[in-house]
Amino acid sequence: MSDKNITCECGHINPYGTEICEVCGKPLQGDSESNKLLNMRYEGSARRSQTYKTTIIDKIWNFFSSVKVGIWIIVLLLVASAVGTIFPQEMYIPPLSDPTVYYEEQYGILGQLYFDLGFHNLYGSWWYMLLIAALGLSLIVASLDRFVPLYRALKKQRVVRHESFMKRQKYFGITELVNNKAELSTVKEVLQKKRYNVKEEDGHLFAEKNRFSRWGPYVNHIGLILFLIGGMLRFFPGMYVDEVLWLREGETEKIKGTEEAYYLQSDGFILETYDNNDAKFKDAIEASGQEAVAKNYQTDAVLYKQVGERIAGTDPELEKIKEHPIQVNKPLKFDGYAIYQVDYKLNELQSMTFTMDNKETDKPVGELTVNLYNPEKEYELNDGYRVEVMDYFPDFEFNDKGEPTTKSKVPNNPAFILNMISPEHPDGEVAFVAIKQNLEPLGENDYKMSFQNVDTKNVSGLVVRKDNTLWILAIGGAIFMIGVIQGMYWNHRRIWVLRKDNEIWLACHTNKNWYGLKRELESVTDQTGLHMPLDQSEQK
Amino acid sequence: MAQLSSNLLYIAFFIYFAASIVFAISLFGKKWRKSDEATHSKKWGMWGFILSTVGFLFQLSYFITRWIAAGHAPVSNLFEFTTFFGMAMVFAFLIIYLIYKSNVIGLFAMPVAIIVIAYASVFPSEIQPLIPALQSNWLKIHVTTAALGEGILSISFAAGLVYLVRTVNQEKASKSTFWLEVVMYTLISTVAFVILSLGFEAAGYSSTYQFVDQNEQQVTVEYTLPALTGPTDGTYVSGNEFGPLVEAPAWMKGEKAAHKLNTLIWSIVGGLALYGLIRLILRKRIGAAIQPALKNVNEELVDEIQYRAVAIGFPVFTLGALIFAMIWAQAAWTRFWGWDPKEVWALVTFLFYAAYLHLRLSRGWQGEKSAWLAVVGFVIIMLNLVVVNLVISGLHSYA
Amino acid sequence: MKKKNRLIVRTVILAIVFIAVGYTFYTNFFANESGIVQAGDQAPNFILTDLEGNEVELEDYRGKGVFLNFWATYCEPCKDEMPAMDKKYKEYKDKGVEILAVNVSEPKLTAESFVDRYKLSFPVLLDKSNDVTNHYGVGPIPVTFLIDKDGQVIRKTQASLSEEVIDDYMKQIQP
């Protein structure tokens, strides 16, 4: 062992950096005659970071072991987090808006600066994540460095402490005795009644309670570390699924992210609003200026599971698992997945119904309903009338070349080129039919298509989630709470009673809540006739 | 039932007011005391505590009756939350009083609670229906626990304030006296803002302006305080024909920026006027005026109360504002954490008090420095309540 | 001895933390999305119907190079490359290269009239429910996979292709 170790006058060899002898409690640092109160942090034991400073590993270790560094990391995280709320993060700006111009447009020069500095995606930035990683490392290193020596120090506590240890406690008092024996046994009894764990040695007493509260900080740090590990696990493949699923009423879709195993069918989307004349809420709804306030978003869903293997593109064989109305706050849960109600679109076009009319008589000769997602090629009407669909554009527009085309596959603006075949025109007459539009591109026709009505369906916006990290986050959170409560709601109190000739010396210490300890002491001294120790910090 | 409920709140409010005065007498009223100092302060302190308890019971009745009237826990909008937060503060004070029997904490905590509740009255108080995301038992569990945590943490602010008023040297102006006055001024300007808002509301003041926002949308904005700053190129539509005196600067482009600026200016100006008036009457700093009454206060005890309040409040806050919040967010918004501004500010509050607890371990961070930290902590809590809901838009801005 | 052990413990703990954080950073900032078909993967088999109603299975094309294209009529860049694809199809058809053009869940009629208008001769397959498209992890179209005679994807591209490039690609998968 190196000569840096400190040998106390009691003969015990303490590690370098020890402030208070591990055995007898004699203060080792500074002037032994000093009357200054002792710093009882970590029992005056040597934190390991103070010992070795040679290799680069030790240097990194010692850096992260410092509470000061830890506090700086917390403060930097705090400031960075706050900065991230000045303007909305990229994920909260309206979808489809371009962040390169959005911030400037909405928030002016400051917005531009915010974007240029990368603050629009602050919480996902490398430096923010690095700060969190540094916090995690600090938690591990600082806790280990303190827990081990503290544990040792508290475990091998002696009953008898050095005189100057006693004198330099915050509360210290001397009582002169007439008849010592009886009094000490009452002291012991009284302390035991206050649920102290009392040890006796040669007529000296050492009473202690709630030592476990000293472990609180380390327990809560373990919780936090677990929580951070949970956060990290998310990035491992297969731990986390987050998909959007748009589901039209009546349709069955494969549930993305479930490795093809599950299918979901919508039996209908329901949007309910509050009654605007409801006596209870009338005033608030009026004051809000909204037409209606939503009460319920719900998708009546049926969950299926695929049976057996399947080649992509072929129809699956499905087995019904369960029916479940998916509402906000009430996701559908299965096999580690959860499906949430998050969005909707009302009244999406589904099919359109037309009649074919004779222009002269203005009478219909037949009716047809066209499924906008999969129109037929031909619709047979009666008596030799027929409609051929020559072309179909679900989301019609003219492109820059002037050709008719479709913007998307969603029938937002369906348009048809139809050939109307009648006994008079066996080759047909061509008509272009769109919403509120009827063109006859190849000349005047004798027949026309008249729009009758549409059939619409609602679409549910659902989110599919799997988060295999939740259990570890939950455990981490629970351990953290246990740790803080253990550390904050109890306090470690110790009372040393030293018999010295015909005097009784009384000193005590607590890690927090001195007021509580003082009241306890008052009660002890009242019952035993000892003098109430003085608060030495008050007699400067 | 709703009417009964709001009457109960009024009663509670006035009882709190009375309790504050009684606590003040327990400290100031030495001139007319017949008994000795200790008995005097004990007697009046007891009455202060009893009144606070009675007030609390009235507010609790408000809470219960409003719950019955609404059919859901009344913690779902800014009015309800802010009043509940005030109630949580009172509750936290009662607990701390039972432990420490400190009248001076009452003198500071009760008025702060009163200001919080008064501030709540500025928001619309109609009973609102719950949107689907709020229809969950976690609403009451999360919000009440978070508010209780914040209430307990606020007691540490009250204790910190006592410490500062007690110890800051008022003989000459310094940074400490300046910032202490800033704290006083901020509390006063909140009062001024409440008075102005309620005053103009009672007078039925309202004027509407129309302007084109940055998305080329026609927007109308209603002012309930006279318009000092109007939207850029805004036109007057209806209501009281006053102002705007100037247009808000062009770089303030956020939603309703001009309107928010107007409210801010009124609060600052109103606060200055009220603060000026008080200074004129006192002829010294507010801190200096209160200091003599606190000369018998045990500063070390106050410091400990401040630390203890954080020690008790921190776990409650973490449980309510982070853990319960995450559990609910996982159900309602599909993820337990989404960097929504309110979530982030709960995290900021958590980090701040975590830093505070670690600093308390270090030498030299007890006493005055710690008291200033307690003040900053309260500022963060209030920022989360006021600025995050009203200025930054996010998922939590229900009001 | 004690000192040495301590150094080892410290080194191990720091190493674990650095590796874990490094891996997290790697997957977050650099790694490709998992679960989608990439160059080097075996092309997943599928069965789709063409415009005539015949079933087409990818595995039947073993021994041939397959130019697997995902397209739709609303996608202008897709349309732009169609004539060149058709031209090269005719050239390479007898050299053992096949084009399979998967239409991304449009109505049959829309796809059919488009094929008629552009007079395309290669098989067009209908992916009614986006099944194959999702299976291949196709996002924005056009996307083309070059599959060699052994069924392995040798390239994935997301651009609209010119005649020269198509020619070059077809050479690459020519058996």
UniProtKB/TrEMBL annotation, chain A:
<feature type="transmembrane region" description="Helical">
    <location>
        <begin position="218"/>
        <end position="236"/>
    </location>
</feature>
<keyword id="KW-1133">Transmembrane helix</keyword>
<dbReference type="InterPro" id="IPR007816">
    <property type="entry name" value="ResB-like_domain"/>
</dbReference>
<feature type="transmembrane region" description="Helical">
    <location>
        <begin position="126"/>
        <end position="148"/>
    </location>
</feature>
<dbReference type="InterPro" id="IPR023494">
    <property type="entry name" value="Cyt_c_bgen_Ccs1/CcsB/ResB"/>
</dbReference>
<feature type="transmembrane region" description="Helical">
    <location>
        <begin position="69"/>
        <end position="87"/>
    </location>
</feature>
<keyword id="KW-0201">Cytochrome c-type biogenesis</keyword>
<keyword id="KW-0472">Membrane</keyword>
<protein>
    <submittedName>
        <fullName>Cytochrome C biogenesis protein</fullName>
    </submittedName>
</protein>
<feature type="domain" description="ResB-like">
    <location>
        <begin position="67"/>
        <end position="522"/>
    </location>
</feature>
<keyword id="KW-0812">Transmembrane</keyword>
<dbReference type="GO" id="GO:0017004">
    <property type="term" value="P:cytochrome complex assembly"/>
</dbReference>
<dbReference type="Pfam" id="PF05140">
    <property type="entry name" value="ResB"/>
</dbReference>
<feature type="transmembrane region" description="Helical">
    <location>
        <begin position="470"/>
        <end position="490"/>
    </location>
</feature>
<dbReference type="GO" id="GO:0016020">
    <property type="term" value="C:membrane"/>
</dbReference>
UniProtKB/TrEMBL annotation, chain B:
<dbReference type="Pfam" id="PF01578">
    <property type="entry name" value="Cytochrom_C_asm"/>
</dbReference>
<feature type="transmembrane region" description="Helical">
    <location>
        <begin position="371"/>
        <end position="392"/>
    </location>
</feature>
<feature type="transmembrane region" description="Helical">
    <location>
        <begin position="105"/>
        <end position="123"/>
    </location>
</feature>
<feature type="transmembrane region" description="Helical">
    <location>
        <begin position="81"/>
        <end position="100"/>
    </location>
</feature>
<dbReference type="GO" id="GO:0005886">
    <property type="term" value="C:plasma membrane"/>
</dbReference>
<feature type="transmembrane region" description="Helical">
    <location>
        <begin position="343"/>
        <end position="359"/>
    </location>
</feature>
<keyword id="KW-0201">Cytochrome c-type biogenesis</keyword>
<keyword id="KW-0812">Transmembrane</keyword>
<feature type="domain" description="Cytochrome c assembly protein">
    <location>
        <begin position="76"/>
        <end position="198"/>
    </location>
</feature>
<dbReference type="InterPro" id="IPR002541">
    <property type="entry name" value="Cyt_c_assembly"/>
</dbReference>
<feature type="transmembrane region" description="Helical">
    <location>
        <begin position="177"/>
        <end position="200"/>
    </location>
</feature>
<feature type="transmembrane region" description="Helical">
    <location>
        <begin position="309"/>
        <end position="331"/>
    </location>
</feature>
<dbReference type="InterPro" id="IPR045062">
    <property type="entry name" value="Cyt_c_biogenesis_CcsA/CcmC"/>
</dbReference>
<feature type="transmembrane region" description="Helical">
    <location>
        <begin position="49"/>
        <end position="69"/>
    </location>
</feature>
<keyword id="KW-1133">Transmembrane helix</keyword>
From TrEMBL, chain C:
<feature type="transmembrane region" description="Helical">
    <location>
        <begin position="7"/>
        <end position="26"/>
    </location>
</feature>
<dbReference type="Pfam" id="PF00578">
    <property type="entry name" value="AhpC-TSA"/>
</dbReference>
<dbReference type="InterPro" id="IPR000866">
    <property type="entry name" value="AhpC/TSA"/>
</dbReference>
<dbReference type="GO" id="GO:0030313">
    <property type="term" value="C:cell envelope"/>
</dbReference>
<keyword id="KW-1015">Disulfide bond</keyword>
<keyword id="KW-0472">Membrane</keyword>
<keyword id="KW-0201">Cytochrome c-type biogenesis</keyword>
<keyword id="KW-1133">Transmembrane helix</keyword>
<keyword id="KW-0676">Redox-active center</keyword>
<keyword id="KW-0812">Transmembrane</keyword>
<dbReference type="InterPro" id="IPR017937">
    <property type="entry name" value="Thioredoxin_CS"/>
</dbReference>
<dbReference type="GO" id="GO:0016209">
    <property type="term" value="F:antioxidant activity"/>
</dbReference>
<dbReference type="GO" id="GO:0016491">
    <property type="term" value="F:oxidoreductase activity"/>
</dbReference>
<feature type="domain" description="Thioredoxin">
    <location>
        <begin position="37"/>
        <end position="175"/>
    </location>
</feature>
<keyword id="KW-0735">Signal-anchor</keyword>
